[in-house]
Specification:
Layout lengths: L3 H6 L5 E10 L2 E11 L18 E5 L3 E4 L4 E8 L8 E6 L2 E3 L1 H7 L10 E5 L3 E4 L1
Antiparallel strand pairs: 1-2, 1-9, 2-5, 2-6, 3-4, 4-5, 5-8, 6-7
Length: about 130
């Protein structure tokens, strides 16, 4: 897990190499790619979809949030549009690599809102340089 101190020292808006994951029981999805630490207001053409989450408190302005309802600290990131720097993802079941199709049989894909911005739980941000 990355510390809030390290995150606060990283330059915002520049590209960083990162590794993050999501877990669901025995299933794990590990992604590695180039991202930026961003706030919505700095990306042209991005519209926030849905209602503002009133359960959230900003910890570090505009990119680290704490959700009181879930107890999760979230980091806001953005993917690059460069196809050479595409995010690479591996899927695992109990530590053994499986195919994306096998993973999706047990874990329905998330809705895609065509936004380059996403949030990762702080505990699931494994590495950032």
């Amino acid at each position: 897990m990355i510390s809030l101190t390290k995150l606060s020292k990283l330059k915002k808006g520049v590209y960083h190499s990162a590794v993050w994951c999501s877990k669901n029981g025995l299933y794990e999805k590990v992604s590695k790619g180039v991202i930026r630490i961003v706030k919505y207001g700095n990306i042209n053409g991005v519209e926030v979809k849905g209602n503002k989450n009133t359960n959230e408190n900003v910890i570090i302005p505009n990119f680290v949030y704490f959700n009181k309802k879930t107890g999760n600290t979230l980091v806001q990131l953005a993917k690059t549009n460069n196809p050479k720097l595409k995010v690479k993802t591996t899927y695992k079941l109990d530590g053994v690599e499986i195919t994306k199709e096998q993973y999706e049989l047990a874990n329905s894909p998330r809705k895609n809102y065509d936004s380059p911005i996403f949030r990762v739980k702080l505990e699931n941000l494994l590495e950032i340089n």
